[in-house]
Design brief:
The complex is a heterodimer of chains A (113) and B (110). With 113 residues, chain A is mainly beta. Helices cover 0% and strands 50% of the residues of chain A. In chain B, strand 4 and strand 5 form a beta hairpin. Classes of the chains: A mainly beta (113), B mainly beta (110). The interface between A and B is medium-sized, with 24 and 21 residues.
């Protein structure tokens, strides 16, 4: 089944404790991205990747890191999480950046205490 | 900077009614517009993708139109059902990262 998977689905952590949210797609997509969704602010893009070893900032990259060492994986890294990073996070992928359907993962609900 | 607005923010209709959700965007230089559905606490499911060169797309009871020059798109849902209750998001792809509207929360009452 074609899908985007994220892990973990739920995470409660404390300020400053490094964490990684994994994202994997099995559709051989070139383009992957990360979003956060907050009440009243909607979905905002954090980082995106056009291909392996190619990443770029989205609208709200501060406090996040990403890497794209393999085509199928695009982990989101929070080196020192803070409470304002409490949010619902989505990973997405598409065949190309332009003109293709975006497929979303199920989301990761992160709480930083 | 691209801005996407969805009106209304919430909508409640009786089952069986036809309805229209609206999406407007400020920069007409787009590659495509996509409509998504989001159920509470869940991910986004793509409903329809309209390329910038297209005027409309249809899938079952859903029809989406695009008027790029006026910066507008509509999502038409025919014969609504309680299972259509969800939040509907439109997203625009241009030379900036994908920009989402804040959604329309639809409730279809049986």
């Amino acid at each position: 089944e074609a899908q985007v998977t994220q892990n973990p689905r739920y995470l409660i952590t404390v300020t400053g404790k490094k964490l990684t949210v994994t994202c994997s797609q099995n559709m051989n997509h070139e383009y992957m991205s990360w979003y956060r969704q907050d009440p009243g602010l909607g979905l905002r893009q954090i980082y995106y990747s056009m291909n392996v070893e190619v990443t770029d900032k989205g609208d709200v990259p501060e406090g996040y890191k990403v890497s794209r060492k393999e085509k199928r994986n695009f982990p989101l890294i929070l080196e020192s999480p803070s409470p304002n990073q409490t949010s619902l996070y989505f990973c997405a992928s598409s065949l190309w950046r332009k003109g293709d359907t975006q497929y979303f993962g199920p989301g990761t609900r992160l709480t930083v205490l | 900077k691209q801005e996407v607005t969805q009106i209304p923010a919430a909508l409640s209709v009786p089952e069986g009614e036809n309805l229209v959700l609206n999406c407007s965007f400020t920069d007409s230089a787009i590659y495509n517009l996509q409509w998504f559905r989001q159920d509470p606490g869940k991910g986004l499911t793509s409903l329809l993708l309209i390329q910038s060169s297209q005027r409309e797309q249809t899938s079952g009871r859903l029809n989406a139109s695009l008027d790029k020059s006026s910066g507008r798109s509509t999502l038409y849902i025919a014969a609504s059902q309680p299972g259509d209750s969800a939040t509907y998001l439109c997203a625009v792809l241009g030379n900036t990262p994908l920009v989402f509207g804040k959604g329309t929360r639809l409730s279809v009452i049986a």
